Amino acid sequence: MQINKPINRSLPLASFLLVLICVFSSNSFAQKFTAQTSKNKVAVGEIFQIAFTINTSASNFKAPNLSDFDVYSGPNQSTSMQIINGSMSQSISLSYMLSAKKEGKFTIGPASIVANGTKLESNSIPIEVKGGSQQNNTNNSNSSNAYNPYANQQNTTNTNQQYSSDKSSDDVFIRTFVTKKSCYIDEQIVVTQKVYSRLNLRGFQNYKMPEYNGFWSQNENQKNKQIELGQENIDGVMYYVAEFTKSYLFPQRSGQLTIEPMEIDCIVRKRSNRQPQNVLEQIFGGGGYEDFVVKAKSKSITIDVKALPEKDKPANFSGAVGNFSLKAEISKDKVKANESINLKLSVAGKGNIKITDAPKITFPDGFETYEPKVTESYNEGGSFNGTKTYDYLLIPRKAGEFVIKDLDFSYFDPEKKAYVHVPAPEFNISVSPDPNGTANVVIDPSATKSEVEAKENDIRYLKTHDIQLEKADTFFFSSWKHYTLLGLPILLFAGFIVMHSRMQKLNSDVVAVKERKAAKLARKQLVKAEAFKTQNNKDGFYQEVSIALHSYISNKLNIPVAELSKENIELQLTKRSVPAETIGKLLATLGDCDVARYAPAAVSNDINVVYNNTVELITKIEDETKA
Amino acid sequence: MKQKLNILLLALLLSCSAHLFADNVALLSSAKKAYDKAEYEKAISDYEKIVASGEVSYQLHYNLGNAYYKNNEIGKAIYQYQLAHKLNPSDEDIKHNLTLANKRTVDKIEVKENYFAKNIQSGVLHGLTTNGWAWFSIISLFLGMLFFALFKISERLRKLFFWLGSFSVLTCIIALIIGFFALEEITANKNAIVLTQQVSALNAPTADAKEQFKLHEGAKVNVLESNSAWTSVQLDNGNEGWIETKQLGLY
Question: Which residue of A has its CA nearest to B93?
């Protein structure tokens, strides 16, 4: 315990020191996160810039609350890198273009950013906003300010404000042009949004595309579009005109459909009434103009959409409205079975071609067909037009003569106000049998295929049997139950081994007991023999002696009686170091017994002598095996 | 000794039998009825209640997956099928429905690696459930011990029984090893399914990080690391990104 204490105490100290070192070392290339503004005093509506700069790489920038201001653009990110004396420094700046909504004193910030894992906060910026009339009081301190692209604007904020508030209606406006105000469903309407301005148009920002509810719309490709500026005379006043967007609309339902207004912030340039500040400005005229933002909004337009006439509507009408032509081609008309044919159907023209479905064609039986490959190409311009090509792959599976017909195409022509039927040729195809001979084997491939599909198209039904709920994330594997059950056979085996060895021991005990009692048993047997001897019953006598001797040897040597042979007895007794003489006597006596039992007359020996010999033998063997 | 053994066996049997709560049995049947009447929302809520009670089975996940599938919530359906598949990797119905559900997902991710070796590996791992491997190990150990006992007693077939016993014990060990790997795979939550219609994978675990790629409902991703808020995922084509954990179903 006593050794531990100083260590415990020094640990926090060490870590404190470490933190200190870290702080100082990081301070040597200090991370600075600063906020700057182009102006501290602005007029309502005047555009000014705020910029947040950090001199290291950082992420997680959180902008301050700018709800008191209109954000014209931003955050605009710029990165700069400098290498001085071989050491690189980097700075990132995020800037906003703002204008104040109302008079008063505001504070912007602080913004926060995460650099190298630490959160940094910028300084906050006080902004004083004054009304338009008082702005001339604003102090011109901007010559020292690096972030001031709009420094020169200060003197002209008067006009700036004026434009952004009320000039939008006549100096700058948007007109929406439509090719038709009344049309049929799916008939093409071209909508053009044009910006008119009496002032020089410099650019657009924050535009909101109108919503075309109820229309399927295709906007003109904007990617490579350069907005061209033209001039137009309206009521004797020259306007700059820019075609802002062009959209192709296809009304999808009948009734009154409205094209919502469009809003654009236009950046216009106006000659300022401020005098040029220096020589450069006098030469290049830089000081004479400034840009400001004007909001422009178009008016909504209502389109009256009529439903397509039901009268004379062809059966194969697939919804095409416009003006189309049809071309059908087939790759070959003489094929062998299982060879493929290409059928190409192309619809070209102007109208809602992009949203029309593939023509429905019923191919003859025995033709394997696939979904057509569709290729489309479209042109934009005065109207939306193009070509849609359907490539069908056909594989006849049977030999014979076939006709592909009913390829005709129908569309509604809004100009003629009628349905137009475009006829297509019929194709006669003769299919010869497949030389490989498989053609006739396939009886009806389409039928079997669809059957299989139907089978595989739905999920299989719920499982309702034998649901055994178990505790989630508990597994039998590696659980105590599993280990117990694994242990069980091992335990059983161990038990078996113990039992087995005990039984063996017990068995050997029995042998020992038998051996010990062998002489006793033999003597008991000999008592019977003695009885026969006194009766002089030779037969009975020899039998009892034979049994006594055999059972004695069997017990003594642990050999079953049945396995007692001369050789066996001799072998076992020799092993137990019984002298050969005794063994010879024993075997002779046993032989005598056998002979006497089967041929009593041949034995001449006196039974008394035999009896004594036997008793003597047993005693002898007992003595000799003990020693 | 014999008595003790009997008591032990009885205890084992009792604890092995399933704990079917009466509530859950009722929920199972009411969910099935709702499913049959095409009231999939009801079926889903019933099945989810059972899941919430902490009791699961592969059939439950499969049925819940079916209900989600029918209710056109493909992401959740795939997630449930995957959970079911994990608990019972050899069930054909699960595989079939999972394949169908996967056909309805948006993202087609190109697989870069050659999965031959991996297929063999998963074939072995998924040959049996972890329960299957557990019982396999127990039975083979039992047989092994039986053969060794016979080896002790027998006189004429000693050699045969010795080899049979060794073989069985070896099988037991192999089953245990495979089982451990399978269990590891199940519990590791290495995969995830996108549950919501569309998610953005970002380049860092912060809300304003840059978007790397988009994924749609039902897409399968590999999980590299995960906490309660963010999960780092990798697609089969090698792309990596961070996704909010609540938009994913980890399994």
Answer: A460
